[in-house]
Amino acid sequence: MNTIHWRKRTAGLMACLLALLQLTGCAPGGTPAAKNASIGTHKPERPSYLVAIEDEPDTVDFQCTTIHYTIAQNVFDRLVETETSDNGTAVILPSLAESWEVSADRRTYTFRLRDGVTFSNGSALTASDVRYTLTRLLTHPASCNRDIALPILGAEALARGEVSELAGFAVLGALEFSVTLTEPYEAFLACLSMPGASILDEESTEAAQGRFGLEPACTVGTGSFILDTWEPGSGMQLSANPNCWKGAPRCDGLDLRFVTDPQTVRLMFERGELDILSLDDLDSSAEFFFHGDIYQSRLQKVQQVGISYIALNQSVRPLNDVRVRRALQLALNRPLLLDAAYSGRGSLENGIFPRGLYGYNPELAEIPYDPEQAAALLAEAGYPNGFDLTVSLSSSSTRNTVALLRLAVTMWESIGVRSDITVLDDEDFIAQRRSGALACYTATWTADYNDPDNFISTFFGSRENTRFRSLCYPDEAVMQQVRNARLIAD
Predict the structure, then answer these.
(1) C-alpha distances in Å from residue 111, one per residue of 80, 92, 98, 118, 124
(2) Rounded Cα–Cα distance for residues 259 and 275 (Å)
(3) For a tag site, which of 89, 154, 301, 342 has the least CB within 10 Å?
């Protein structure tokens, strides 16, 4: 079954607030729609193009973004895919790789690719394409997903430019190859299911150079759809790939519209101009669909393996003092934040591993709301009269995010923290966050693959990782423990 996968927004972590949200969606004709909405159940007859709303990306080069993955998931495929059950159990499924074997020392993975898989330009998929994909992932100057390949033997030397080939990759035949890791890493297969690990056509991607991910004709994959057009400010159109190895999709294509105003999106759906409506970013306009009997049969809610949070930068004074960070956490009335910003839809979490994630611990102590204790901690830290704090907000933030942050700032004022909310354009916001310059911001992180490593290592596994998200966590000993935990097989 071919499925539509919508984009994933990602950002940083280290929560004063941990709220698990729910993905919600509507589809016409009584058909549920979710993040992975079945094309085949859209209508009894064969539809022409499915129409949906999409954020306009700056690039669809999935190696160079951590936000826009719609094209990666629909135009490209990965070696493996993961499927997660409601209880958090994750299963690795074959995709472009039809089979694999793991050596006794858990370091070498030998893969066999499916025979007969072709890219949309007619080129046959080979082991050389996989080698090129991993090499580019490590060497592209704008790569944001280098972590996927870093466990491979020789990856760090290649990324630093010290060598020209990836030592841990061996082509064994046109459809066979092996990948040897520096040391055992139990989440490696799960990593290969990430959108950033989608497989490229070596010849066309290399010929395209900087046009890959920007020009449709240069963006060639093996997936169910082909990127045909990208009209800036308007939308994208994807046509069905009739020669896809999974079989042709059961619709003629996808028509993705770049519309940002929630009221306009709602009206488009009501007028029948949209086939699928994601309610995640509809803000207050989403309430219309949650109440009454009109849309209840078409509404689907699924648990999102992710959290929304407020990030604090430990390299910025006085946030480098754990008492100050704890005070900011204690001053937040989290149930009120959840009700006010998200109409109570979601759950409060007490750790960075959300429910639904393998390794989730439901027994963690509840994070309390205690403004008096918060004020006492500030005084103990030397700030009896509070302090000034710059809070950053992206210009592309949803109304829910803005409401959440404004209410949090009001709560902090009760303990003397004077917060200045600075709105940055999206590009500047991302650039400052990656450089470790933001003192405080709010965002959401959802799992790329169902393993706790995707949370703990992504944010605290190295100085580079923690700076990339403006957390600037300083404890090298703890980061080494996180890296050690990646080796555990049990």
Answers:
(1) 10, 14, 8, 17, 17
(2) 14
(3) 89
Enter the pTM of the model.
0.77
Going from the C-alpha of 375 to that of each of 139, 314, 403, the distances in angstroms are: 48, 20, 24
Cα gap 194→304, rounded to integer Å = 16
Classify 328 in phi/psi space as left (phi over 0), alpha (psi -120 to 50) or beta.
alpha
> For the chain, what is the mean pLDDT?
86
Across the beta sheet with 347-348, the strand order is 347-348, 19-20, 306-312, 440-446
Q: Three-class SS of residue 234? A: coil
What angle (nearest 5°) sits at the alpha carbon of residue 430, between those of residues 426 and 433? 135
The answer to whether 222 touches 117, Cβ cutoff 8 Å, is yes
Helix, strand, coil tally for the chain in percent (to 5): 30, 20, 50
CA 267 to chain centre: 28
253 three-class SS: strand
Structure tokens at 146: 């280098």
Q: Which of 192, 191, 195, 213 is nearest to 204 (CA)?
A: 213
Structure tokens at 154: 């020789």
- CB-based contact 136:123 (threshold 8 Å): no
Using the structure block, give the residue that is written with the tokens 């078409």.
298
Q: What is the pLDDT of residues 313-358, one digit of tens each?
A: 999 999 999 999 999 999 999 999 999 888 888 889 999 999 888 8
Partners of 48 in the β-ladder: none
Beta strands in 352-401 (DSSP E): 388-394
What does the DSSP assignment read for 12-48?
----S--EE-EEEEE-GGG----SEEESTTS-SSPPS
Relative orientation angle of helices 371-380 and 322-330, to the nearest 10 degrees: 160
Q: How far apart are CA 469 and CA 292, in angstroms?
A: 41
Q: What is the DSSP string of 295-358?
A: SGGGEEEEE-SEEEEEEE-TTSTTTTSHHHHHHHHHT--HHHHHHHHHTT-SEE-SSSS-TTST
HSE of 422 in the Cβ direction (CA atoms, 13 Å)? Answer: 14
- Report whether 40 contacts 327 (CB < 8 A): no
CA gap 219, 214 in Å, rounded: 8
The predicted-structure confidence for 451-475, as pLDDT tens digits, reads as follows: 888 899 889 989 988 998 999 999 9
- In Å, what is the CA distance from 228 to each residue of 214, 231, 426? 12, 10, 27
